[in-house]
Amino acid sequence: MANFYINPNNVVHELPKNNQPKFFMFGVPSYTNLGDQAISLAERKYIEAEFPDYQYIEIVEEDDDAAIPVVKQCITKQDIVAFTGGGNMGNLYLNHERARRKVFSTFTDNLTISFPQSIHFEDNEAGLYEQKLSQEAYQKNPNLVLVARDAQSYHRMQTTFNNKVIFTPDMVLYMKSVNWEFNRNGALFVLRHDSEKVVKKSTIDNIKDILGNERPVKRVDTVLDEPQKITPVTREALFDSELELFSHQEIIITDRWHAMVFSVLTGTPCLLFGNSYGKGKHAYIDWLEHINWVSYTDEEDTERIKQQINAVMEAKTHAYDLIPDFKQLHDLIPHNR
Amino acid sequence: MANFYINPNNVVHELPKNNQPKFFMFGVPSYTNLGDQAISLAERKYIEAEFPDYQYIEIVEEDDDAAIPVVKQCITKQDIVAFTGGGNMGNLYLNHERARRKVFSTFTDNLTISFPQSIHFEDNEAGLYEQKLSQEAYQKNPNLVLVARDAQSYHRMQTTFNNKVIFTPDMVLYMKSVNWEFNRNGALFVLRHDSEKVVKKSTIDNIKDILGNERPVKRVDTVLDEPQKITPVTREALFDSELELFSHQEIIITDRWHAMVFSVLTGTPCLLFGNSYGKGKHAYIDWLEHINWVSYTDEEDTERIKQQINAVMEAKTHAYDLIPDFKQLHDLIPHNR
């Protein structure tokens, strides 16, 4: 029996019976990656703020299979189907890709939106095989629109799929910035443990040597060990805690794209290193290069890294506005009916 | 009396009287920048190949003022107005920007397309003043669509103007690649002389030292001294000559974005340096990073530059496909009526 998250305090097992148009968001994470959790939070905030005529209903990923036939039975022409955004379109995270195929190829009569994603199919036999399966599934849906969150992904989606592709930032950049003015003390290393990791341990050790002489240094990941599960009910408090953690730091060193996004939102100096296929680099260059307190590097030279760290730590925060960059998504969604 | 270029061998002074829908391209360059000339050539090729139901009529920039009232009198609802693409939206090339404002604010009842551009208004009093004038002019036209040719410009256009913005590559990347298999001999430096120049003379001298020991080294610019003027009648032969020149080189060193584009089209190894506001860098990262024989750098370290040059010179050419990246423009233009 599927759970439908109507709002953070209202989980139901049957779909509401009313005439309000519905916005069904599938694939909502229950795993403990705070970046992906922040995306699903931002998606709800976005639709509720910008399109209040829709009733927003979330389905967490483990309920996708059970929910699909229930939604299929009740859905009407005015409803919208969506699949959550992130950095997992492709063959590296097949559980997500398989769920996406199933949702896209099922609701072919409804506007279907793949929320802002980056995409990476490996250029090998396994990658090409999975790409073909995704092509077959996606092309069954003439009403499917893919949203790319960086230009590299925009190019890849357009050359891989026949579907319409639009271009916006990652949804978390829709969230409001905060300015809590805590005393900042310490350097926080936010580093992956997964297969996308490419930054060398020696590089990290060198940076710790630079920074640690003057301040406390801690290491975390945006993927939490505890709790073991996060739901639409619990995610906002964890997101707020993460912003609070960032707001206490003098500097963030990371290879996680969303650690850079949290740094933007909190005005925290941040240096981002690459992952295995450039998703953070491209998103930074496309949307954040004009934001003074964050920067990207592939450097291994300690002196050059030190200069970049000094530059972001000395930068003053300033106003920025990424909301107009969501316009292609905004124009896609019918409203005021 | 204005010239209307119906096709390369047919220049007329009155608009053709027939029922065929018209595609009016304003601002076509007559100056000798081969990059901008290649853009206007590619624009004609694109519309003639993809939308043959339109009669394509070019107006060169010095005729814009005389042509506007003539077109205004004859234009019908089915016709499209466009302004040529390039890297000159903003306050650095005010003659172009003023012409753009005039065209956009005149044909407010027709679909009006600003072909792929990058944009740069300086962050100073003069820049903000000119930006305000452009905002006032552009917003008079509810049917105006701006096309950005890199993600930085996409962000800037969306935060500067209320008009719809779409995202495609530079039009010259629509041109077919050539493989003439000439013997390649020599290094060609293609370098700006204008206000956008930032690459240091010492860097160039160091590269000449690296390359010149083994091969002839020449220097040119894509802005020609002779002829003094290029028209839609003469540009294609000059474009072909330029591709032939590139096809004879072992390596191109440049700070001109279109020298990189010509290198892509001819399979010529190329290293691109930056200009004053990042237009080449962003366009490279957005569209060409996966093309092995071209690369971008901001480096001044000779050893690192040498490594990058070796990498592009050793790269094998491969197939690439940027045509799907023009889909947002293709979808914008009505056809098969």
Automatic annotation (TrEMBL), chains A, B:
InterPro entries: Polysacch_pyruvyl_Trfase. It holds the Pfam family PS_pyruv_trans. This is Exopolysaccharide biosynthesis protein. It comes from the Bacteria. Residues 33-277 form the Polysaccharide pyruvyl transferase domain.
